Amino acid sequence: MTCPFYDKNGKKGQAPIGGRMFKSGFVSIIGRTNVGKSSIINKLVGEKVAAIANKPQTTRTAIKAIVNRKNSQIIFIDTPGIHKPKSKLGNVMVETAFEVAQDVDVIVFVVDATSNDIGKGDRLILDKIKEANKKTILVINKIDLVDKEHIAKQIEQYKNEYDFSAFIPVSTVKNINMEKILEEIESNLKEGPAYYDIEEYTDQTTKQLVEEIVREKALKLLKDEVPHGIFVEVDKFKKKTTLNKEPIFHIDATIYCLRESHKGIIIGKDGKMLKNIGTYARQDLEKMLDIKVNLKLWVKVKEDWLNDDRFVKKFKLQ
Asked: Which domains does the chain have, with CATH numbers?
């Protein structure tokens, strides 16, 4: 016995071999800043679709990442980390995270295993989950940093707060229980079509991925020297051929920062910092695009861009 299978264009086909029901659905990954949501997304997808840095608010927009399994298609939405907003951008980020949670099939709530109690940020998210009243899986990340007794205590705390579908302790560093997340999500999905082609793993444009990768490298290399107020925008993106007839992407991108002093730090002595950012970003881009890349980076000061509507609107939920 087979069940209907539809691609994103509505064309009817057949279910995967074995006759099992094909499932699909949208899943929101929500949590405080810096709990590892983007790392989890990238591990589950097997591709880099979200910027990772050891800084809060790395993810600024709701990024879709697609996992195609034998009998299901899971569309993840990695939302911005929940934090106390201090700008227009901050407000948009928090609003986006909560809007997404209202309109998905399953919520994955990620918490930090090293937390001793349910803090204000997690409590705020819990309240929103209760309002949404969706099937929710609690994922406890960074279990490699604590003992089993601590994890058990944490699970007990959250059991008293909400009727979670499952509790899954994980470690992205040691790749513990990542497959269990997918299995549990799939068990909570209903029969549905494949919304995207099976070759796709994100709905982000290539330009958006370039911007994410450049920003990630900047955040990692700059560490605590420059506050989180940087934004990357691709100015030119053209595919050409070299003199040897090899395809190559020519990409120009601008890193915007808040102050003139920040610009000097991003460029670095003799341009060394900017060169390093460009080198590491180019290496990732060539792996992702499977083509040579000529990347040129520029740095400009845009004071208070965090409250500039032209920039902020890019992060609003579409």
From this structure: 4-191 (3.40.50.300), 206-315 (3.30.300.20)
CA terminus-to-terminus distance, the chain: 39
List, in sequence order, the alpha helices (H) in 143-227: 148-159, 178-187, 206-222
CA-based nearest residue to 267, from 258, 259, 276:
276
Q: What is the mean pLDDT of residues 207-211?
A: 82
Q: For residue 43, give the nearest of 229, 176, 212 by alpha carbon.
A: 176
Amino acid at the residue 221: L
Average pLDDT of the chain, as a whole number:
79
- 299 near 267, Cβ under 8 Å? yes
Using CB atoms within 10 Å of the CB of residue 288, give its burial: 0 to 12 exposed, 13 to 18 middle, 19+ buried: middle
Q: pTM of this prediction?
A: 0.60
Q: Give the model confidence (pLDDT) of 220-252 as tens digits.
A: 888 766 656 778 888 998 988 888 888 998 999
